[in-house]
Amino acid sequence: MEFQLWRNATVLVSIDNIKFLVDPMLGEKSSFGAFPYTEDPRANPLVDLPFSGKALRKQLQELDAVVVTHLHPDHWDAAAVQLLDKKLPIICPEIIAKTIVAYGFTKVIPVASSIHFKGIEIVLTEGKHGTGAIEEKMGVVNGFVCSSKNESIYFAGDTIWCDAVKSSIGTYQPRYVVVAGGAATFAIGEPVTMSVEHLNSLAATFPEITIIITHLEAVSPCTEDREFIRKEMAKNGLSDRCLIPKDGAHYSFH
């Protein structure tokens, strides 16, 4: 399995040579403005993609499918709508399928529970994008477990540590778990993505998994950066089990 973080939650993953782009945020730096429910006026994204132009177009042309967990602009932006081939399969939760179809995509594959795509099983999972009032404003979010005969990776999506994540890992037993870190926090309530405390709980509950921490330093609500998380993971003896990729970083998992 090949894994490359592009930026934020945008990941290129190859499973049995089938290439999926997860949660494409493809716009230039500052392309979609400030987030609501925050006093931070900075335009997002805060950083550019690690490549653009011909290199980006080449990568997009080689995709087998796109996987979208939800429609917040840091996971599905106007540039993704513009740049992705409208005939490219888009795999997404059933709840957002009609919206993606309305953008002109002709091969939208809604997932109610699970599907098989070119030999890869893709299972829909649930999450909690915060608690209380901020969770209501964030709306429904999902994740996906992608598995072949020999490989399995769980994209938890924009969720805090919760029973749904615990249940998904216990049920599907993925070797790699990709989580949204950064403790993204708005003017209302508690973090809506995983904090270091959540990451510690995840690691303690499932000592057999490798955790890949994404969603860092690319959007303004995030309050914990890579260096802070790296130090905290080292303090708890988790450096070998927690990967904190830089934008553009590539990993081969065997």
TrEMBL record:
<dbReference type="GO" id="GO:0016787">
    <property type="term" value="F:hydrolase activity"/>
</dbReference>
<dbReference type="InterPro" id="IPR001279">
    <property type="entry name" value="Metallo-B-lactamas"/>
</dbReference>
<dbReference type="InterPro" id="IPR050114">
    <property type="entry name" value="UPF0173_UPF0282_UlaG_hydrolase"/>
</dbReference>
<protein>
    <submittedName>
        <fullName>MBL fold metallo-hydrolase</fullName>
    </submittedName>
</protein>
<dbReference type="InterPro" id="IPR036866">
    <property type="entry name" value="RibonucZ/Hydroxyglut_hydro"/>
</dbReference>
<keyword id="KW-0378">Hydrolase</keyword>
<dbReference type="Pfam" id="PF12706">
    <property type="entry name" value="Lactamase_B_2"/>
</dbReference>
<feature type="domain" description="Metallo-beta-lactamase">
    <location>
        <begin position="7"/>
        <end position="215"/>
    </location>
</feature>
